[in-house]
Amino acid sequence: MLYEKIQEAISFIRTKTDDTPTVGIILGTGLGSLADRIKVSSKIRYNDIPNFPTSTVESHSGELIFGELAGKKIVAMSGRVHYYEGYSMKEVTFPVRVMKFLGIDTIIISNAAGSTNADIKEGEIVFVKDHINLQPENPLRGYNDERIGPRFPDMKNAYTPALIQLAQKVGTEKGIKFHEGVYLGLQGPNLETPAEYNYIHTIGADLVGMSTIPEVLVAKHMDLKIFVISVVSNQCFPIEQITQTTIEEVIEVVGKASPKMISVVEGMLGIL
Ligand code: HPA
Q1: pTM above 0.90, yes or no
Q2: CA nearest ligand 1 atom 7, residue
Q3: 28 CB near ligand 1 (under 6 Å)
Q4: Contact between 206 and 179 (Cβ < 8 Å)
Q5: Residue 113 C-alpha to ligand 1 middle, in angstroms?
Q6: Which residue's alpha carbon is at the smallest distance from atom 6 of ligand 1?
Q7: Ranges of each domain in the chain
Q8: Closest C-alpha residue for ligand 1 atom 10
Q9: E strand residue ranges, 12-162
Q10: 158, burial (CB in 10 Å: exposed 0-12, middle 13-18, buried 19+)
Q11: Is the CB of 236 inside a 6 Å radius of any atom of ligand 1?
């Protein structure tokens, strides 16, 4: 049972730290180097935590980092798993469940995405205001434990408007250009065909990616406040703009945008 699995993970973590973080951060693409800025109190490897998704292929499976960032007590996930790697949606989202039961009330998530909005360019950052879920399998499917959340969670304002406003304030004050947009999630791992990018644009999405939505569904199920920040790694609309994307280019684009993302998140934490 999910509730018991969460408690098992919590019990183990509580043998290592009695920290009480209020904000959880998933250090996805663009925020990875935020890990170096945390005043660390403890680190726990995913491999050691009961029921955490573990990876046998990577030498470094990921870790939960407890500490302080911009004066705020936080817990950060350094390393995350994706549905396209073969994990179930329940496995992908289990760490979010655990962070909630550690006491967080807010979650911050970053990702890289393709842009299907001609006005949102490569290297720019986007505060996600809503999503379209086209991923198969839902982490909330199956038995619902009311101790964790409701059977039919509402999705209006899943992306907490007050957090978006805060991000806008921070971005404006720091002179950082930003957009707001709708994120569409697909399972990947392939990128999309031109016809698919066109379709994604047509149905109302500004961004497309392969992560984040499962974590948001689970976070909203547990009534967390949610903030998602994306970096555009490739321009996908209009379709003439699509170029063959190499991983090297993506890393370069994201590397340039990363300081902007870090600056926004730290600015928000300082005020929260
Ligand atoms: N499609 C899907 N996921 C992505 C993309 C994309 O173009 N870019 C970065 N993540």
Answers
A1: yes
A2: 114
A3: no
A4: yes
A5: 5
A6: 114
A7: 2-271
A8: 113
A9: 23-27, 39-45, 63-69, 72-78, 106-115, 125-133
A10: buried
A11: yes
Low-confidence spans in the chain with pLDDT less than 50: none
| Digit-coded pLDDT (tens) for 151-176 | 999 999 999 999 999 999 999 999 99
pLDDT of residue 242: 84
Those residues whose C-beta lies under 8 Å from the C-beta of residue 172, and which sit 6 or more positions away, are none
- Probe target for ligand 1 pocket from 233, 242, 253, 254, with the most ligand atoms within 8 Å of CB: 233
Q: Which helix (H) or strand (E) holds 94?
A: helix 89-101
- Atom from ligand 1 closest to the CA of residue 210: 3
Report helix, strand or coil for 255.
helix
CATH of domain 2-271: 3.40.50.1580
Cβ contacts of residue 207 below 8 Å, gap of 6+? 113, 114, 115, 116, 117, 120, 126, 128, 181, 182, 183, 184, 230, 232
Could you read off the pLDDT of 180-234 as tens digits, one per residue? Answer: 999 999 999 999 999 999 999 999 999 999 999 999 999 999 999 999 999 999 9
Whose CA is closest to atom 4 on ligand 1?
209
